[in-house]
Design a protein that fits this description.
single chain, 181 residues, alpha+beta, Ubiquitin Conjugating Enzyme, two-stranded antiparallel ribbon, 38% helix, 16% strand
Length: 181
């Protein structure tokens, strides 16, 4: 279901700036076209996912652009972690989570940042971030090559870059140190 409010804000330029293109080009592409229902091939797909995520995180650290931590349950079907965004030298950190859809990798996971639920129009109920207009068609064109590292680089990263400064400027989120005063 496409929400009209998701159309504003995340434009192509935010999704495809040079730094993002470079970072994405260095993420290994995945080969195994399998989701959690296919137990044997899913293990192979998970191995590829972890290798791509490790490479992406290593590259981010090298580029001084470390911005998330991610782990999964034993089956690799439920993922959780932290993501953060630096704004005016202050680190804004959020819990994130998502489930692997049964139709993965044909269907991209929906990343949720529960504490931001209801604070922006570019979010669905439960704090799921809106990636409809630009990300989902890009994902669909790249099945099964795109994986969770691509979801972070082309989905969550650009969403944070657009939404967090906007939420801060509107006073809808404040830095944790400022909350106590």
């Amino acid at each position: 279901m496409l929400h009209g409010h998701c159309r504003r804000g995340l434009d192509q330029s935010a999704m495809a700036d040079d730094a993002t293109r470079r970072a994405v080009s260095e993420i290994p592409l995945l080969k195994t076209n399998s989701g959690p229902r296919d137990k044997e091939l899913w293990v192979q797909r998970l191995r590829e996912e972890y290798l791509a995520l490790i490479k992406y995180v290593e590259n981010n650290k090298t580029a001084d652009n470390d911005w998330f931590r991610l782990e999964s349950n034993k089956e690799g079907t439920r993922w959780f972690g932290k993501c953060w965004y630096i704004h005016d030298l202050l680190k804004y950190e959020f819990d994130m989570e998502f489930d692997i859809p049964v139709t993965y990798p044909s269907t991209a996971p929906e990343v949720a940042i529960p504490e931001l639920d209801g604070k922006t129009a570019k979010m669905y109920r439960g704090g799921k971030i809106c990636l409809t207009d630009h990300f989902k068609p890009l994902w669909a064109r790249n099945v099964p090559k795109f994986g969770l590292a691509h979801l972070m680089a082309l989905g969550l990263g650009p969403w944070l870059a657009v939404e967090i400064p906007d939420l801060i400027s509107k006073g809808l989120i404040t830095h944790r140190e400022q909350q106590g005063s």
